[in-house]
Design goal:
Number of helices: 16
Organism: viral metagenome
Radius of gyration: 32 Å
InterPro entries: P-loop_NTPase
Shape: elongated
Number of strands: 22
Helix content: 25-40%
Oligomer: single chain
Number of domains: 3
Distance between the termini: 62 Å
Strand content: 15-25%
Protein name: Terminase
Low-confidence stretches: none
Largest sheet: 9 strands, mixed
CATH topology of the largest domain: Rossmann fold
CATH architecture of the largest domain: 3-Layer(aba) Sandwich
């Protein structure tokens, strides 16, 4: 060995080799594990949800004689699972079996090119794949490797098309398998707003799939995989869903020719009430829905793309089904110095909070109302709207005589103090902008004059143009869990809740409710088993992390 050259071993330790081999072997039967091991950029963005494992298992199932339809919302990893499935099947394919022949169809030519670019990038530049499987690029071995067709080193063939009509009659050939028909035809979001404009164009798609593509499948191993979201009430995707629902209703699901996996974005029984909480939480879906409403004028696009409803419910964000009605009575315990609610004899502790949306703009005083709302929250985060004052054209604070007594009408500050005292509120939140700055200043002056430093009122800046998005994001989680309770007589508030959207002229009462919930927290009283009385729960109180 020449002088100066260090001797080293490039072979990994046996323990590390064994771990890598085990991980690679798991990827043979587990598509999600394969993705997390080799396609980390796609599969490690967020935790995988249960529905993704269900889809992955259906992709890998070779025993089912049914065609597979995966109908889920946009952005919920349909195409990503498809890409992983193609790579996994080709890379793990046994040498002693006939090579696979897959077709991958998109709705546009540029999308078909990007699909193949993804495969090319992973095969040629993914060092993890190359380390585990070697150079599988057919171009290295003088095989066909173009934008439309890719033949891997093991002769597995993938063709990408942007028109389903072009799949008719295509075959591949190999020494082992001879002339081969398609093992898989993957129709990946082939329907869009352009090719489903007319009933004739929709009918063309259905006829090509049933009369041309389905007969082109291998008679023994061939399977059709349809990934999509319904874009029209009579689309091919919707026809699969309609047939599936009819089969369930008639109790003949085993005879239905499609294996259907379908989920809308909203799933009350799943984590966070959504399909993929780790990536599309409820707050994100609410934000997307408001974007459709504010941009297009209604939420039909949201319901089509995320709730699988091509015929939308309209532009309303919430409805009467999102809140409940209560008739609780309020009481104050002098001994415990705490608020309680009585609902049909069930007495439980609550904390009360106040929210205020003042309207003092000189141009809108005759139309916008100043609203003060008080809510009570119990330990289960149920929110009870206790009192609501909504007034037109009232001053910032009522006039007072030399002794400090109100002369004439009350003002916004006076109502705030009255409700704060009546319900022994923990704190309050007040909208603070230039137009309403006088309310905040008047409150500070009255607080100083009357020595009421026990009142905690916090100013908060509004969201401006994003106000409705902020309100929906803040209240949405409570409405979707049906945690908000209103009184029967809260007609105006109920109307604003049920008509929240771009066409709603005023949202002042909903905004006051939003402010009331901004800084709320649950009570820390617990009922003792022996005496059946409430005591302060010291365990639930906030403590310094330094204290053991």
């Amino acid at each position: 060995m020449p002088k100066g050259v260090k001797k080293f071993n490039i072979t990994p330790p046996p323990k590390r080799l064994a771990e890598e081999e085990r991980a690679i072997e798991i990827g043979r039967t587990d598509l999600i594990a394969f993705g997390k091991l080799f396609l980390r950029g796609d599969f490690c963005k967020a935790d995988s949800a249960p529905y993704q494992y269900e889809i992955a298992d259906a992709y890998m199932d070779k025993s089912s004689g049914k065609q597979l339809a995966v109908i889920i919302p946009r952005g919920h990893i349909k195409s990503t699972l498809t890409k992983a499935f193609i790579l996994q099947q080709f890379l793990y394919h046994p040498k002693n079996e006939p090579p696979l022949f897959f077709a991958w169809v998109a709705d546009r030519l540029d999308k078909a090119y990007r699909n193949m670019d993804y495969i090319d990038m992973q095969i040629r530049f993914n060092t993890r794949l190359i380390h585990a499987f070697g150079d599988m690029c057919g171009k290295t071995y003088n095989r066909k490797w173009t934008e439309h067709d890719k033949v891997f080193r093991n002769s597995c063939t993938l063709v990408s098309r942007s028109n389903i009509k072009n799949l008719r009659g295509e075959t591949a050939a190999s020494v082992i398998g001879g002339s081969q028909r398609y093992n898989r035809v993957i129709l990946d979001d082939i329907e869009n707003e352009e090719n489903t404009k007319t009933l004739d164009s929709i009918d063309v798609i259905k006829r090509v799939i049933t009369n041309a593509i389905y007969p082109a499948l291998d008679v023994n191993s061939g399977r059709l995989i349809f990934n999509g979201t319904p874009v029209h009430p009579t689309s091919f995707c919707q026809s699969i869903l309609d047939g599936y629902n009819k089969a369930i209703k008639e109790n003949r699901l085993e005879d239905y020719s499609w294996q259907v996996i379908t989920y809308a974005a909203t799933q009350p029984d799943m984590q966070g009430g959504v399909l993929w909480h780790a990536y599309y939480p409820r707050e994100k879906l609410d934000e997307i829905r408001l974007f459709y409403v504010d941009t297009y004028g209604n939420d039909s696009g949201y319901f089509q793309e995320y709730e699988l409803q091509p015929q939308a419910k309209g532009a309303k964000v919430w409805g009467a089904e999102h809140y409940q009605i209560h008739n609780v009575s309020y009481q104050w315990d002098e001994k415990l110095h705490h608020s309680f609610l009585n609902w049909h004899g069930d007495i439980f502790p609550v904390n009360c909070f106040l929210g205020c949306d003042p309207a003092t703009d000189i141009n809108t005083r005759g139309s916008d109302r100043s609203v003060i709302t008080v809510v009570a929250v119990d330990k289960d985060w149920r929110i009870f709207v206790m009192e609501e004052i909504s007034k037109l054209s009232i001053p910032e604070i009522g006039m007072r005589d030399k002794d400090g007594n109100i002369v004439g009408d009350k003002g916004v500050v006076d109502y705030i103090i009255d409700l704060y005292d009546a319900f022994h509120c923990k704190n309050g939140t007040l909208e603070d902008v230039a137009m309403t700055r006088g309310v905040w200043q008047s409150f500070q002056a009255e607080k100083l004059r009357s020595d009421r430093y026990d009142i905690v009122l916090r100013p908060e800046k509004p969201a401006g143009r994003e106000k409705r998005n902020k309100i929906v994001a803040g209240l949405g989680k409570h409405f979707y869990q049906r945690k908000i309770y209103l009184r029967q007589e809260h007609f105006s508030l109920r109307h604003q809740i049920e008509n929240m959207g771009p066409k709603l002229g005023h949202d002042d009462e909903v905004e006051a409710l939003f402010f009331a919930t901004r800084n709320m927290y649950v009570p820390v009283l617990e009922k003792t088993e022996k005496s059946n009385t409430y005591v302060e729960d010291l365990v639930s109180r906030s403590r310094s992390w330094i204290v053991r």
